Amino acid sequence: MKIIDCRNMACPAPVVTTKRGLEEAGGEPLQVLVDPGAPRENVNRFAVNRGFSVSETPIDGGFALTITPAGAPAVSPVPVPERAGKRAMLIASDRLGDGPEELGRLLMKNFIITLLDLAELPDRMFFLNRGVMLTTEGSEVLEALEKLGNRGVEVLSCGVCLDFFQRKELLRAGTVTNMFTTAEGLLGAGLVIGL
């Protein structure tokens, strides 16, 4: 049985690492070492929601989760509803939520990086207002945005916003867009996700 150690990993790394481990295990049991609290709960919930059974064994300072198929195919895909039109994402800030700034930035970074591990991606990502800080020099998600672009996601940053923050020359991911293209893209999308 393969063992993967997810201790001392920040969210969402334990779930993402477990997902990859299950894919590589090809239906064989997998043991995942996790910290108590959210990592234990998140990995357990992830596995159960995909049809696996999970048994827990306390270990020094954490848990060993043994994940075994329970008659379901390994890592069954999450059903995606049919949609008409493209899927657009509107990102209007460099952080997620209204809590502490540091937490909001961490959540946004984790969200964008986690997109790389999903089967379904947005067709277009529109960055407006402080969201353009994510597509310009110094952003911690430039590599993730580049990889998303390589997978067909169109990364578009508001030109007015880049000018306002004096960042147009610092754009490092995607291309500059305008409000007409943004409005047309959002109104013509089959699904719009706003962050």
Instruction: Please compute the radius of gyration using only Cα atoms.
Output: 19 Å
Order of helices and strands: EHEHEEEHEHEHEHE
The strand order across the widest sheet is 8-7-6-5-9
**Beta-strand share of residues:** 15-25%
Shape, principal axes of CA atoms: elongated
The average pLDDT is 90
What can you see in these coordinates?
This protein has 195 residues and is an alpha/beta fold. It is built from 6 helices and 9 strands. Residues 72-78 have low confidence and may be disordered.
Question: Key features?
Answer:
195 residues, five-stranded parallel sheet, four-stranded mixed sheet, 6 helices
Short note summarizing the structure:
By secondary structure, the chain is an alpha/beta fold.
Q: Mind sketching the topology for me?
A:
Blueprint: E1 2-5, H1 13-25, E2 30-34, H2 38-49, E3 52-59, E4 62-69, E5 87-91, H3 101-115, E6 124-127, H4 142-150, E7 154-158, H5 159-164, E8 175-177, H6 179-187, E9 191-194
Parallel strand pairs: 1-2, 5-6, 5-9, 6-7, 7-8
Antiparallel strand pairs: 2-4, 3-4
Helix pairs in contact: 1-2
